[in-house]
């Protein structure tokens, strides 16, 4: 064989003198025949050298250990020097590379949550090679996450305390709502212990690491980078994102205002949805259970050429349960029922290999009965999002998102008699709100040592609280209050690899916000007198939020990390201008509230065993919040407790959080976490009696665990448990909520390749947790069971 580009020597005829004629004639004949044969061989060799080799096809499928296809996996092909191609698997997990100009090479596959795998391939000329990948779950340190740095980063290369909840973990939990599933993350909690199935929507804000003591969220909740929280009040409607569309959820604990601005005081919770599949896909889950609970969620997607589309929807209904114990229950009490529906439609277009644009429209409608005959609420949300993503080798990656949404929230409040047999309407509210925002971001690797990200964000919120106030059951006055808030922010962060084992991350963000057009109008009912108008002065605040982190990746699977940061949260329009009543507790608004400002530090260590069958991470944190907004008691009577939102002097939250993950063979997996949180009021000059008190709604201890067994051909089984220590429901630490323990379980069996049946049980012990004292004691959900089916089509 001869290398391409080198000429094979031409055969030459050699005649030897001195031979006889007959001998010469015979010799010439022999040489002529040899020359003809050599010429034929030469022409054949030249033709083989000059004609190109027939191209081959390389195709295959990417599966997980259960045999299910892995959609959206990145596959890279190596076929000799300078020949590298990339593709993404479709909904059926398959990929194909056409016209590959080589006979052999390598192909690698990777996907979020899985370890990278590589295979060799070989194909005959004009033929094809088939490659099958079975991806093993990635070690925690190898999982990719985007929230900590706003770009794809391995967990093992970030100093942030980040937990990832995969779609597989969501499917294996007994919880029917996303917020209940997230309770498996230590330190994650809503304002009270009740989940979104029964809690008032205004109490569904997230708190992390014991930061915050009211319904407004102290953690920013995002859906694909777009804020998910209520624009007026900061609480979260957890049913807005259908569960079937969720690819994974990332929970970032610790101040993150350096990248995300306001509301990221205690961290970030981001729901990342599934991509539009390259081939048609359909997933449907439906279940029915106790308390007349019905639930269904669906995700469907497909692609035609450069166009792609997806649809996600969910509907939920429950007859609910009584919040009050039977011995205290009266004629006014009813089950806390709820129903909602959500819909999201996405259309995307690939303008080129590097540029993609999309548009998404979503709707959410909800109605609730809040435990009595007269206390009800309704929510209607509409949102539109458009965006573009560009990735260039030299220019870097650009992302742009623009969004706008409207909301109408209706709520009624009442006063219940001591014997709970009669109920009187006290307030009837309507809260319209609008929001619009823009986010642009650029990220790029600078050389081999720097990874840089920078961006700009703008947001405007308008909202009001229009309410009818009742006295002794009769309309007495109309009160309207509201305003407008506009926020601008710029941020930048650089991750520097100082050495092969040492990474430094430093960044910061500057925000400025302004409240305008704020006023309050009180008009006597029936036009019995003039209106009282109070115009609140315009005001502005700003915040600079820096963060610096250091990560050391040592030998033996050991890593050490430390971070220091500042964060802030601007008060919501709801806190500034809207009063509310829960039970016999009236909470007043405060138009003079200022931003909460946090200074924090954390340090810890991580460990991963040699086979990565066991991983653990422990973090110590220290957070101090200046001017936290809390509901402070002003007066108490036997029938009414009056509170007002106020900036406390300073609170401190310090503690330790531990996360553990162990794979016990191929089938078993044990994971869990623990958080110790000491959250207290350090100073409050306006009321020194509160100093040294525990921050409401924050337990000292929180423990979670889950044990999973997975054999998809036979049985998949999981047990989840969580426990919480005692906590207080008030600022004076008089209304104590006892410790609780909750145990759930789920078992599923595959009936066919596409159909799976499951049974889920919640609160197996049957002991109801104490979730609130207003001052009436209210309880969490009782034991419940539901049965369901899951259908997956076009993914295999």
Structural class determined from secondary elements: mainly beta
- Helix fraction, binned, reads under 10%
Strands, count: 47
Q: Note the main sheet.
A: 22 strands, antiparallel, barrel
Overall geometry? globular
Question: What value does the average pLDDT take?
Answer: 86
List unreliable stretches of 5+ residues: 1-24, 43-51
Give the percentage of residues in beta strands.
over 45%
Radius of gyration: 32 Å
Number of helices: 5
Termini Cα gap:
44 Å
What does this 3D model show about the protein?
By secondary structure, the chain is mainly β. The protein is built from 5 helices and 47 strands. The strands form 9 sheets. It has a 22-stranded antiparallel barrel. A hairpin with a 6-residue loop joins strand 21 (355-369) and strand 22 (376-392).
Reconstruct the topology from this structure.
Blueprint: H1 21-50, E1 56-64, E2 74-78, E3 84-88, E4 94-100, E5 104-110, E6 117-122, E7 128-135, E8 144-145, E9 153-154, E10 161-166, H2 167-171, H3 178-182, E11 189-190, E12 206-207, E13 220-223, E14 226-227, E15 246-253, H4 257-260, E16 267-273, E17 281-289, E18 293-304, E19 307-318, E20 338-350, E21 355-369, E22 376-392, E23 396-416, E24 423-446, E25 450-471, E26 474-499, E27 502-524, E28 532-535, E29 539-553, E30 558-569, H5 573-577, E31 580-582, E32 585-588, E33 596-608, E34 614-626, E35 629-636, E36 641-647, E37 650-664, E38 668-683, E39 701-711, E40 715-724, E41 727-728, E42 736-737, E43 740-750, E44 755-762, E45 770-773, E46 777-779, E47 784-793
Parallel strand pairs: 1-7, 13-16, 32-36
Antiparallel strand pairs: 1-4, 2-3, 2-5, 5-6, 8-9, 10-15, 11-12, 13-14, 15-16, 17-18, 17-47, 18-19, 19-20, 20-21, 21-22, 22-23, 23-24, 24-25, 25-26, 26-27, 27-28, 27-29, 29-30, 30-33, 31-32, 33-34, 34-37, 35-36, 37-38, 38-39, 39-40, 40-43, 41-42, 43-44, 44-47, 45-46
């Amino acid at each position: 064989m001869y290398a391409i580009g080198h000429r094979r020597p031409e055969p030459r005829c050699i005649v030897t003198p001195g031979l006889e004629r007959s001998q010469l004639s015979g010799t010439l004949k022999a040489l002529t025949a040899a020359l003809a044969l050599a010429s034929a061989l030469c022409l054949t060799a030249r033709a083989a050298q000059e004609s190109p080799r027939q191209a081959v096809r390389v195709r295959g499928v990417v599966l997980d250990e259960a045999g299910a296809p892995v959609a959206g996996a990145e596959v890279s092909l190596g076929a000799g020097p300078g020949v590298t191609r990339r593709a993404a698997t479709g909904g059926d997990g398959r990929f194909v590379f056409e016209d590959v100009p080589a006979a052999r090479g390598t192909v690698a596959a990777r996907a979020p949550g899985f370890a990278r795998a590589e295979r060799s391939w070989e194909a005959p000329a004009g033929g094809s090679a088939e490659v099958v990948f079975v991806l093993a779950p990635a070690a925690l340190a190898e999982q990719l996450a985007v929230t900590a740095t706003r770009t794809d980063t391995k967990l093992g290369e970030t100093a942030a305390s980040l937990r990832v909840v995969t779609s597989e973990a969501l499917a294996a939990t007994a919880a029917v709502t996303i917020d209940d599933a997230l309770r498996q993350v230590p330190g994650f909690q809503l304002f009270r212990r009740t989940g979104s199935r029964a809690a008032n929507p205004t109490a569904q804000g997230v708190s992390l690491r014991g930061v915050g003591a009211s319904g407004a969220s102290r953690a920013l909740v995002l859906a694909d980078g777009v804020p998910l929280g209520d624009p007026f009040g900061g609480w979260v409607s957890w049913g807005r994102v259908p569960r079937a569309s969720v690819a994974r959820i990332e929970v970032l604990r610790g101040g993150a205002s350096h990248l995300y601005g306001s509301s990221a005081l205690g961290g970030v919770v981001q729901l990342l949805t599934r991509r539009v599949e390259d081939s048609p896909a359909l997933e449907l889950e439906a279940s029915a259970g106790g308390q007349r609970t019905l639930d269904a969620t669906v995700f469907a997607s497909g692609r035609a050429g450069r166009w792609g589309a997806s649809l996600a929807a969910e509907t939920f209904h429950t007859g609910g349960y009584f919040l009050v114990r039977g011995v205290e229950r009266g004629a006014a009490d009813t089950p806390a029922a709820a129903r909602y529906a959500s819909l999201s439609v996405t259309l995307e277009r690939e303008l080129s290999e590097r540029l993609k644009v999309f548009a998404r429209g979503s709707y959410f409608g909800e109605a609730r009965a809040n435990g009595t005959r007269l206390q009800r609420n309704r929510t209607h949300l509409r949102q539109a999002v458009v965006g573009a993503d560009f990735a260039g080798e030299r220019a870097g990656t650009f992302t742009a998102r623009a969004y706008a949404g409207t909301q109408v929230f209706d709520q009624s409040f009442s006063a219940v008699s001591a014997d709970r047999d009669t109920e009187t309407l006290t307030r009837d509210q309507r809260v319209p709100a609008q929001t619009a925002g823009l986010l642009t971001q650029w990220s790029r690797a600078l050389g081999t040592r720097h990874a840089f990200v920078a961006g700009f964000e703008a947001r405007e919120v308008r909202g009001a609280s229009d309410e009818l106030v009742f006295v002794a059951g009769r309309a007495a006055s109309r009160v309207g209050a509201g305003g407008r808030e506009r926020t601008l922010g710029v941020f930048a962060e650089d991750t520097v690899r100082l050495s092969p084992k040492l990474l430094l991350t430093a960044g910061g963000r500057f925000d400025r916000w302004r409240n305008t057009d704020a006023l309050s109008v009180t008009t006597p009912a029936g036009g019995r007198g003039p209106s009282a108008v109070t115009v609140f002065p315009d005001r502005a605040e700003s915040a600079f939020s820096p963060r610096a982190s250091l990560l050391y990746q040592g030998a033996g699977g050991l890593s050490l990390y430390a971070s220091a940061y500042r964060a802030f949260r601007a008060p919501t329009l709801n806190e500034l201008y809207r009063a509310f009543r829960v039970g016999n507790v009236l909470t007043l608004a405060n138009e003079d509230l200022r931003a909460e400002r946090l200074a924090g530090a954390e340090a810890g260590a991580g460990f991963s065993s040699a086979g990565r069958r066991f991983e653990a991470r422990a973090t110590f944190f220290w957070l101090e919040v200046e001017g936290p907004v809390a509901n402070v008691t002003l007066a108490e009577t036997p029938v009414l407790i009056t509170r007002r939102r106020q900036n406390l002097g300073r609170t401190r939250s310090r503690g330790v959080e531990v996360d553990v993950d162990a794979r016990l063979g191929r089938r078993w997996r044990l994971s869990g976490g623990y958080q110790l949180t000491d959250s207290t009021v350090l100073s409050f000059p306006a009321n020194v009696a509160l100093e040294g008190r525990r921050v409401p709604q924050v337990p000292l201890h929180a423990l979670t665990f889950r044990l999973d067994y997975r054999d998809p051909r036979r049985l998949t089984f999981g047990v989840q448990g969580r426990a919480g220590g005692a906590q207080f429901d008030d600022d004076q630490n008089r209304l104590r909520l006892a410790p609780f323990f909750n145990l759930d379980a789920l078992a599923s069996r595959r009936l066919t390749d596409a159909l799976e049946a499951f049974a889920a049980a919640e609160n197996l012990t049957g002991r109801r947790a104490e979730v609130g004292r207003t001052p009436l004691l209210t309880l969490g959900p009782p034991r419940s069971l539901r049965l369901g089916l899951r259908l997956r089509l076009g993914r295999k």
